[in-house]
Amino acid sequence: MAINYRTYRNLESSLADHLQTELDAQFSSPKIQIRVGKTFNSNWKLLVVAVFWDSAPAVKLGIGENRWIENNTMIIDIFSTSEGLKLDLTSCVIQALREGFDCHILAKDPGDQSQVIKTPNGSVHVSILSNSALALGDNVDKRDKYRQRITITVDTVDL
Q1: Within a 10 A sphere around the Cβ of 147, how many other Cβ atoms?
Q2: Which of 4, 15, 90, 107 has a C-alpha 20 to 30 A away from that of 122?
């Protein structure tokens, strides 16, 4: 029996896959790395787009319903090497989100736990809550000098 990932990990992975495909089509060089997680890892090389799930308030679909709609908040952090490239990456990411993205249900392969099986599960709608530069001052690490944060919501119903 396959071990399914839960909703939040499915969303993170699906968003990362979508952005990697879109940015690969726009940027042949330099290569843009897409990472899942909010901690900047020392082996990351700039240019990096990091995605992670943040929170999910949920409400019932209606009176007497057992199904919930979750308003998942996700963060997209862009770590760049220059102001111009940061703006270009931001524009491409926003463009890539306009029509939402395909979501997959992920599961570990029961025969080989190092392999992940992706099963299509429709597409999700995205709303952009904020898109702002993170001004962290003048004495910051080079990875934080040209940084942008995009906050989105992704609505799911029993995904």
Answers
A1: 19
A2: 90
Beta-carbon contacts of residue 149 (< 8 Å; ≥ 6 apart): 75, 76, 77, 78, 130, 131, 132, 133, 134
Name the most confidently modeled range: 4-8, 39-43, 62-66, 141-145.
Answer: 4-8
Does pLDDT of 158 surpass 60?
Answer: no
> What's the mean pLDDT when you consider all of the chain?
87
Angle subtended at Cα 159 by Cα 64 and Cα 3, rounded to the nearest 5 degrees: 125
Percent pLDDT > 90 in the chain is 49
Residue 143: exposed, middle, or buried by beta-carbon count in 10 A (0-12, 13-18, 19+)? middle
Q: Are 86 and 148 in contact (CB under 8 A)?
A: yes
Give me the domains of the chain, ranges plus CATH numbers: 3-157 (3.30.2000.10)
Looking at this protein, which amino acid is placed at residue 94?
I
